[in-house]
Amino acid sequence: MTILCVRFQLPSAHETAFPELLGLLEEFTPVVEALPPDGALADLRGAERYFGRGAVELAPVIRVRALALHGVDCVIGAGPGPMLARVAQRAARPGVTCAVSADEARDFLAGKPVAALPGVGAATARTLCEYGLDTLGRVAAAPLSTLQRLVGAKAGRELHEKANGVDRGRVVPNAVSRSLAAERRFPRDELDPVRHRRALLSAGEELGARLRAAEKVCRTLTLTVRYADLPHSRTGSSGGTPVSTTRGRTLGEPTAHSADLTRTAYSLYEALGLQRARVRAIALRAEGLGPADRASHQLTFDPADEKARRIEEVADRARAKFGPRAVMPGGLAA
């Protein structure tokens, strides 16, 4: 089971948090398909290798982070494909992940109404019910030729396969998921600017790798620096509540090049003019994502830039083969 379907229980006051919740999922995997207004599919195959845990084990981690960071609970279903994950999510309860394996799929679906199957609309469900095919178990047992006469050749074949638990779908990242984030927390409040820059390097490398893996480029980079407490950081007095500073910049051209992202991150950091700031965490967010194959790239004759891009290609191949930890960005553990 590698696919999660997550339905965030968003009250009206938190509707604007949906993009941030998608960003939370993208911290686990770049393969996220938004299901507006409050749901998403996430393919966790890469995350399973990275974390050494299965999707069902990662689901509670996602739930806890959504609650801790956004105050939003969620209902999660897991399955070997997106169709089964979506049906499982509808049967799940808050705090308990409903997981359906390929072997269990047919029995799990059998007693459910035909309308419970994603892609079966009201008109199709009405037609099937008129012929006594009111549950997925009865649809699965019906002859394929009968289903094709009722709903058409292609739709009938797909309906027959899905009712029998065959899930050939895949998670397709879409335009609603428009940002990726990488955060680096320090084990203790950090004053050393060198360590701050090392964290920026690590986060920039991670963002670049994830953008390239998703075949995306970003147009804007945002830096957020969270302090231990602002008064202590700036004036030397104690007290106060944790605060942060956020700065963003539109890039000269859309990019997924880690060196460009890191340079921009350094520039944003230096513009803050921090002096002995006690920093608790540093985060970078790539925004305004678009397909890489539609982005233009200014040609350069700088051999160092070309060398860096070739090194990136080698590192990306190593990550794809051996997992994200095969190449540790910037020397700072994620």
Bulk shape: elongated
Question: Reading side by side through the largest sheet, how are the strands ordered?
Answer: 2-3-1-4-5
Helix content bin: 40-55%
Q: Estimate what percentage of residues fall within beta strands.
A: 15-25%
Which class best fits the helix and strand makeup? Answer: alpha+beta
Low-confidence stretches: 230-242, 330-334
Please count the beta strands (DSSP E, at least 2 residues each).
Answer: 10
Please give the largest β-sheet.
Answer: 5 strands, mixed
> SSE string, helix = H, strand = E?
EHEEHHEHEHHHHHEHEHEHEEH
The chain-level mean pLDDT equals: 83
Distance between the termini: 25 Å
Radius of gyration: 23 Å
- By DSSP (H or I, 4+ residues per run), the number of helices equals 13
Task: Give an overview in words.
This protein has 334 residues and is an alpha+beta fold. Helix content is 43%, strand content 21%. The chain has 13 helices and ten strands. Helix 8 packs across helix 9 and helix 10 packs antiparallel against helix 12. The longest helix has 21 residues. The C terminus is likely disordered.
Summarize the structure.
The chain is an alpha+beta fold and 334 residues long.
